[in-house]
Design a protein that fits this description.
69 residues; mainly alpha; 3 helices
């Protein structure tokens, strides 16, 4: 697993294009980071390759702790 942070739409588009060409057999999970773990990983995410199951209940618990604590 690795993380890439992009700061503007141009960088994001360029990175998506690179992934399409170079990800090989890897499955890639792409999501934003803005502070709501549940929405970032469910509603606002996308996959390249196989879609893997996520433990959504755990994301909900972590989001509540992150937002309210």
């Amino acid at each position: 697993m690795f993380e890439v942070d992009t700061v503007n739409p141009h960088q994001t588009g360029a990175f998506f294009s690179w992934l399409v060409l170079h990800r090989g057999p890897c499955d890639v999970f792409i999501h934003p980071n803005f502070g709501n773990l549940y929405r970032e990983h469910t509603e606002l995410s996308t996959w390249m390759g196989r879609k893997w199951p996520l433990d959504e209940d755990r994301l909900k618990d972590r989001t509540l702790k992150f937002v309210y604590n």
